[in-house]
Amino acid sequence: MRFIYFDCFAGISGHMLLAALCDLGIDPGIITGLPRRMKMGDLEAALITRKCHALRGLELHFPNADSAGQRTLSDVLRIIDSADLSDPVKNAAGRTYRLLSEAEARVHNSTPELVKFHEVGYSPAIAGVTGFFAAMEALGWPKTFSSSLVLGNGLARAAHGVIPLPGPAVMEIVRGLPVRFIDQEGETVTPTGAALLASHADFGPCPEMTVFAVGYGVAAKQSLDRPNMVRVILGESRE
Q1: CA–CA separation, 33 vs 35, rounded Å?
Q2: Crossing angle, helix 123-138 and helix 73-81, to 10 degrees?
Q3: What local confidence, expressed as pLDDT, does residue 85 receive?
Q4: CB 176 within 8 A of CB 37
Q5: For helices 123-138 and 14-23, angle between their N-to-C axes, nearest 10 degrees
Q6: Can you tell me the distance from the alpha carbon of 130 to that of 63, in angstroms, rounded to the nearest whole number?
Q7: Cis geometry, peptide bond prior to residue 166 (ω within 30 degrees of 0)
Q8: In angstroms, rounded to a whole number, what is the distance separating the alpha carbons of residues 129 and 215?
Q9: What is the pLDDT at residue 239?
């Protein structure tokens, strides 16, 4: 059996997780062709090789992304359902967004159907979440594991105003998951990153495996004291 293990030693976002999967060696056209297959107009996706604290990795970048408007869960699901992608990919992406909407609803005392997404509803976020599962499909849907998540602290300005970190939606998503707080100001785990692993991965130690490939996904924002990356390991059970 094939395994994927996400080593979240510095933090995660949806784009970091997808970039790490791409760094394993899947066809980059699967990701760069996503905007066209998702009917997202002029949106472009680019994979850029970056160095981060002397380590090489890939960064997923959307150079001409827009951030206009608010979308509801039904809006996002309509975009995903109309995409030229397989049903397993669309179903998995839909589950992730339902988890996001449930978390946002608890935070804002609303319902999943009425919640209006801000950053997580922008086209790059939708493409990143859907692309994650397109990459998993390209890898043959390996069994997925993850380390515990590291959470920073402080305050951040979001669409709703100033919020504490970790973000309230993130704290709702990680209920029941292993986390550890680190002495670092800033957002280390984004809602999409948390929702992707919460909806798809088992948390715990890396299983015994024969390692085939290792990939690194780099964050757009750099950290002074550690590589702001996520590492993914692809292997096969030795049993």
Answers
A1: 6
A2: 40
A3: 98
A4: no
A5: 30
A6: 18
A7: yes
A8: 18
A9: 65
Q: What is the reported pLDDT for 68? A: 64
Rg (CA), the chain: 17
Sign of the Cα torsion 182, 173, 105, 77 reads: positive
Instruction: Kindly give, in sequence order, each residue whose CB lies less than 8 Å from that of residue 6, ignoring residues fewer than 6 positions away.
Output: 12, 17, 20, 144, 145, 146, 147, 197, 201, 230, 231, 232
Alpha-carbon distance 138 to 47, whole Å? 17
Task: Give pLDDT, residue 26.
Answer: 94
Strands (DSSP E) found in 40-131: 46-52, 55-61, 71-72, 116-117
| Structure token pair of residue 183 | 């002495």
In 10 A of CB 1, how many CB atoms? 10
Residue 80: which region, alpha, beta or left (left: phi > 0; alpha: psi -120 to 50)? alpha
The DSSP bridge pattern shows strands 55-61 and 46-52 to be: antiparallel
**Bridge pairing between strands 2-7 and 229-237:** antiparallel
- Specify the pLDDT at position 82: 97
- DSSP annotation string for 145-206: EE-PEEEEEEEEEETTEEEEES-HHHHHHTTTS-EEEEEEES--B-HHHHHHHHHH-EESSP
Short-list 27, 3, 57, CA closest to 131: 27
* 10-residue mean pLDDT series, the chain (239 residues): 95 97 95 95 92 94 78 97 98 98 96 94 95 98 97 86 92 97 92 98 94 96 85 90
Task: Give, in degrees to the nearest 5, the angle at Cα 236 between 232 and 218.
Answer: 10
